[in-house]
Amino acid sequence: MTTRLRIRVAADLCCGHHRCMELAPDVYEVVGGFNPMDGCLVPAGAEESARYGADACPEGAITLDEEGEVE
Q: Which burial class, exposed, middle or buried, applies to 6 when counting CB atoms under 10 A from its CB (0-12, 13-18, 19+)?
């Protein structure tokens, strides 16, 4: 079993550095210079990459919420 993660992006903190997308392009995208992914689920198998990209945000705008376990 694996834990699904939901991406949370604080739009007021995102400054458009793009580090999340540069370091984890399999998870994050940038549109209009900013990360629009608030509420999106992390693709199965990309949890480590999602954490890496979130941790790279210099503003701390990205957090990951656990959504529960799936098989």
A: middle
CATH 3.30.300.30 fits 2-70, yes or no: no
Q: Which two tokens stand for residue 44?
A: 């199965």
Q: What is the mean pLDDT of residues 42-58?
A: 96
pTM more than 0.85 = yes
Task: Say which residue the tokens 């739009």 belong to.
Answer: 11
Which residue, among 63, 60, 59, 68, has the nearest Cα to 3 in the 3D structure? 68
Q: Where are the domains of the chain?
A: 2-70
